[in-house]
Amino acid sequence: AALLWGAILLGCSCGPGPPGVGAAPFVAATYVLDDADGLGRQFDGIGAVSGGGATSRLLVNYQEPYRSQILDYLFKPNFGASLHILKVEIGGDGQSTDGTEPSHMHYENDENYFRGYEWWLMKEAKKRNPKIKLIGLPWTFPRWIGKGENWPYDYPDVTAYYIVSWILGAKQYHDLDIDYIGIWNERAFSSKYIKLLRYTLDKRGLEQVRIIASDRLWEPISFVLLIDSELYGVVDVIGAHYPGTKTVQNALLTEKKLWSSEDYSTFNDEVGAGCWARILNQNYVNGNMTSTIAWNLVASYYEELPFGRCGLMTAQEPWSGHYKVEAPIWITAHTTQFTQPGWSYLQVDGHLEGGGSFVALTDGLGNLTIIIETMTHNHSQCIRPPLRNFSVTPQRATFYLKGSFYMVETLQVWHSRLGFESGNSSLFQRLHPLKIWRGRFSLDLDVDEVYTLTTLKTGQKCVCQEPPPPQPFPSNYKDDFNIRNPPFSEAPNFADQTGVFEYFVNASDPGDHVFTLRQVVVQRPITWVSDADQTISIIGNFQWVNMTVTCDIYIEKPRDGGVFIAGRVDNGGIYVRRTKGVFFWVFADGTYRVTSDIAGQEVLMKGLSGVRDNAWHTLTLNIQGSSASGLLNGYPLWENVTVSKPSNGWAALGTRSFEFAQFDNFHVE
């Protein structure tokens, strides 16, 4: 009754779909599934990444019931993607692809385990699936870790202390047990640091936390593990990124667990689903990888940022409540709903004669799951690495079940067909059960299909009521930041691209500016990409052309401090340094500037403003067609400045450098 009531509340339902259709076979081949001579590697699960960076930024602002529906599609067992693993970024205040994520320690003497949204996301995942595995990995670090240098390994004890603090904070403040910890995403590793990290974990009673290295390529980590026995003893998993389903000899020689610890990263249409289906199987078939983790979990960031819609599903409109359960969710379900970490792969070759692949897994208690994919080359290309040509044809596959599976009489059948020519995909449909005759069965396979054949009867395709239709970002948007106990540290819809902007209580202000938004990163972080030299947070609709942006500003840094508001902002993410737009700056020395770039190099107008630090001022930027004008405290300061490019973009606010500054009563129209 409780389950049914929950389904009614969320407007979701589960059930089988219509049956599929067989294809005319051309190639026929037989395959044997047998556990008599033992099993293959242990399966470690399928997962996805939130972060690297700010990929779940807009998710938190969704209203109920839509936010819970999205989370159910991702994490709830036997519902949608039913993920086994959630990997999150350990925020480091730096740009990590689509934005910055805040650190739990902005400064050396600062600790706060409620910043950002990854804590919340991990708790929501655990609430739905208490068995989900959690991984933490840093992309960037606060500058104090390197004592002023752009490098996290000069003081490895400091870095280890910082990372272990995050793990302890997860437990102390959120009752979250972190299962795995990484080193530094896609950057160099330090053997000395990894050993010290293990020592620090053990010293703090975290022996159960496993170490993954090095979240980059198979080498040099595999080679170093073979020649350094001490390092070999502390690394539990070799994690490679975008391995193209292949591994290397040294990695196999280590006899360690091999994971594709970041993969996919592909636009989530049918081709993206084909990419995901192919690598979920072939990472094991070709590369012995026992876990595959998708970047990213859910595309909850402005689509015009880098790698727009490269998530398993799309939820980028909290203002409307609209989201889309994309095809990769149901491709994931083919594996995740019928396996669990701790199951084992069967020892099979896994290549189909007519092209495509299959894997077979067992729980060792008599259950069997077979996943078959027949993705064609052009319909399964991932964003990277390049995919060499291959062909797939319709085929008949006959399977012989031997060993403990000989007695299996029936297999449940789940089917997806990606419809490229017809544009009509059939996703994760339950077909009639397959009767097994004397341990054998045959299946006619067409191209671009996925089948799951399983002894488990627990699979479900759940469908919530249609979310609201898509709507553009509101064309008239205000935020006064007046919230006493905000559920999150960041104001809704602002997407920080350099620096971190947080709700702030201005205790010293007796007037209208007690609750403000404050930029809090005061040293350039240890970067992962080229952060801007200025801080910036974007908001709104990338298609906006004409707009008026108004904001109260408060410069905290004397002499050379400064802030800006901007419109038609055309870039962010890993490209934030090259951002263009219309930027209206005021500085603590009493001057102003209008520039067409965030770097402040292309000056359109400059002069005196009379603005000073530690006082509130109101800036207004008006852009109409090819002309812009600016007001200070309601009075014209400059006008008729000609603006040509870019022709459209977001609104934004920010600071001249990594400095404290406050913003209030933001309004864009």
TrEMBL record:
Glycosyl hydrolase family 59 catalytic domain mapped to chain residues: 43-337
Main location: other
Recorded superkingdom: Eukaryota
Keywords of the record: Disulfide bond, Glycoprotein, Glycosidase, Hydrolase, Lipid degradation, Lipid metabolism, Lysosome, Signal, Sphingolipid metabolism
GO terms for cellular component: lysosome; membrane
Keyword Metal-binding: no
InterPro entries in the cross-refs: Aldolase_TIM, GH, GH59_C, GH59_cat, Glyco_hydro_59, Glyco_hydro_59_dom
Residues of the Glycosyl hydrolase family 59 central domain: 345-460
Example GO BP: galactosylceramide catabolic process
Single GO molecular function: galactosylceramidase activity
Enzyme Commission number(s): 3.2.1.46
Domain Glycosyl hydrolase family 59 C-terminal lectin: 496-669
Root EC class: hydrolase
UniProt-annotated catalytic positions: 186, 262
Subcellular location: Lysosome
Family the entry assigns: Belongs to the glycosyl hydrolase 59 family.
UniProt protein name: Galactocerebrosidase
Gene assigned in the entry: Galc
